[in-house]
Write a structure and sequence with these properties.
The protein is an alpha+beta fold and about 190 residues long. The protein has four helices and ten strands; from the N terminus they run βββββαββαβββαα. The strands form two sheets. Strands 4, 5, 6, 7, 8, 9 and 10 form a seven-stranded mixed sheet that branches. The mean pLDDT is about 95.
């Protein structure tokens, strides 16, 4: 099914941290008619995320950090327990996630398994996230992690079963983390 779209207007609203544009367009409908939409589109670039797991210890590494969007939307502490992640910038997804892993968790990851790519909020954000998984062990920890200069990241090693329970009780609300933990459960990464 090919989409027939005509962009009528593309207006830059903000080019601050990321880019926000307002598009006006007509979209051809399957019944032969058309509809006109006006939508804001936030372009923050594409990203990568990874589930770091230790099969022998049956643990996962997660990071806890302050996220202002969650704070202004009802998360009283603003802290969010997540999988390690970052924006690609000019890196390949694989290079990006290796760099993020060492910056955020301190673990120098070699081989990573590419799982899939997902749009996380396609109604208004362009970002495509590349999902990975990799095993870690103590011998590959190069530093304490914690992020770069403007980050304050806490690294948590949790039993896998506890992390799954934390989804159910609402302690883990990050979509990336939920997807990757459920992937691990469905695909038997700890068996």
């Amino acid at each position: 099914m090919s989409t027939k779209i005509e962009i009528l207007k593309n207006e830059l609203l903000s080019d601050n941290w990321f880019t926000l544009r307002n598009y006006t367009y007509t979209l051809a409908k399957k019944d032969g008619g058309s509809v006109r939409h006006k939508r804001e589109v936030y372009d923050r670039g594409n990203g990568a995320t990874i589930l770091l797991y230790n099969r022998k210890k049956k643990t996962v590494l997660l990071v806890n950090q302050f996220r202002i969007p969650t704070y202004v939307n009802g998360n009283s502490s603003g802290m969010l327990l997540e999988t390690c992640a970052g924006l690609l910038d000019e890196d390949s997804p694989e290079d990006c996630i290796r760099k993020e892993a060492i910056e955020e968790t301190g673990y120098q990851i070699g081989n990573v398994d590419k799982l899939f790519e997902l749009y996380m909020s396609p109604g208004g954000v362009t970002e495509l996230i590349h999902f990975f998984a990799a095993e870690y062990e103590e011998g590959i920890r190069a530093n304490e992690g914690g992020g770069v200069e403007d980050e304050d990241i806490e690294v948590l090693e949790l039993p896998f079963t506890q992390a799954l329970a934390m989804i159910k009780n609402g302690e883990i609300q990050d979509g990336k983390a939920v997807i990757l933990l459920q992937y691990a459960q469905i695909n038997g990464l700890f068996e």
